[in-house]
Amino acid sequence: MSKKFDEHLIHTYNRSLVLTKGEDVYLFDDKGNKYLDMGAGIAVSALGYSNDEYKQALKDQIDNVIHVSNLYYTEPSVKAAACLAKGSGMDKVFFTNSGAEAVEGAIKLARKYAFVKNPESKGEIIAMNHSFHGRTMGALAVTGTEHYREPFEPLIGGVSFAEYNNLESVKKLVTKDTCAIILETVQGEGGIYPATEEFLQGIRKICDENDIAMILDEIQCGMGRTGKLYAYEHYGIKPDIMTTAKALGCGVPVGAFAAVSKFADAMCPGDHGTTYGGNPLATAAVCKVYEIFEKEHIVEHAAKAGEYFYQKLQALAQKYPSHITQIRGKGLLLGMEVTCKPADIMQKALEKGLIVLSAGSNVVRFAPPLIIEEKHIDMCCDILDEIFQAM
Ligand SMILES: *Cc1c(COP(=O)(O)O)cnc(C)c1O
């Protein structure tokens, strides 16, 4: 079966199911099996699969115009940029097609700012161990997992890695050529590690003192996932540049990097561009997502549901201390550190009609649609209970 499907797809994923349809917070496979979705297409489908208003907005935009080039303004892109700026506390926005591209843009912006100040600047970047910023050459260069990077070197140069949540390790790497410090507000792929308040505020201070761009990657933890629209709101700080994607379009491929004017204004016409980025279809989705988030209080709901989920997972951890060693995360981005292989849990869950994700080497990750209700969380935890019971 999978042989047939893999005939013409480059083998970069070990896929299992053939998914054909989504409904509410459930997915269906080609055999009609139903799955409770605690992965949301990797933190993307925040509104689940049946939001009629969202779907109608896309259909309307398709009837209007799907694409025009970035040589022209469009109403959806101007409006979406205003929504994102307002929501993030940034001043200016550039839309991309993916998260990795948003990271590329953020890096270019930081380097351009440093270049304008001093054309001799080496544009060095400090990134974090166990970080994940995407698979393109620039994003990969700041991704803190050696085996993702090694086969593709040389990547962009001038990158050094500090320990996440260890301020001293960052301070040691700052030089006169440092142009940016890039990190996730909550490390996602690396194993669901939220930043400590001391760490983020400390980085903010280092960046202020040295006129370095603080880049926060909110591609996974942003858009309400942690119970705030952007996760850095938990910390009382603001980055200079931030990246967002995943749930930004709730399924339509779209990302963005946004910045405060001081940095954003370093870019001038010709410095950066994209054919598709921010096209009317993508930005119509963004506009509608922001509208629905506000109207339906999605972020507040995520905070409450996340608290409930966390308590339920804690109860499981207490029941199975030899299998579950820690629960951590924020809002509806939760990690369950396990002593077995996360892939085994994922497989057993699938067999019981539950989709969960993994992160790092020993973490089961939950990133459900933000509209998830307590009854779904109960269902998920009952299935996990059965799995650990049988182990
Ligand atoms: C997923 C992710 C990316 C990459 O996004 P793509 O859309 O897959 O390119 C970058 N940073 C973080 C934190 C992510 O979770």
Shape: globular
Assembly status:
single chain
C-alpha end-to-end distance: 29 Å
Strand content: 15-25%
What structural class is derived from the secondary structure elements? alpha/beta
Low-pLDDT sequence parts: none
DSSP E strands, number: 17
Mean pLDDT: 97
**How many alpha or pi helices?**
14
Q: Order of strands across the biggest sheet?
A: 4-12-11-10-7-5-6
Give the helix level as a range of percent: 25-40%
**CA gyration radius, whole angstroms:** 21 Å
* Biggest beta sheet attributes: 7 strands, mixed
Spell out which ligands are present.
Answer: pyridoxal-5'-phosphate
Structural features, described:
By secondary structure, the protein is of the alpha/beta class. Helix content is 38%, strand content 19%. It has 14 helices and 17 strands. It has a 7-stranded mixed beta sheet, with helices on both faces. A 4-stranded mixed beta sheet has the order 1-2-3-15. α3 (52-64) packs antiparallel against α11 (280-295) and α4 packs across α11 (280-295). The radius of gyration is 21 Å and the shape is globular. The protein starts with a helix and ends with a helix. The model has no long low-confidence stretch (mean pLDDT 97). It binds pyridoxal-5'-phosphate (PLP).
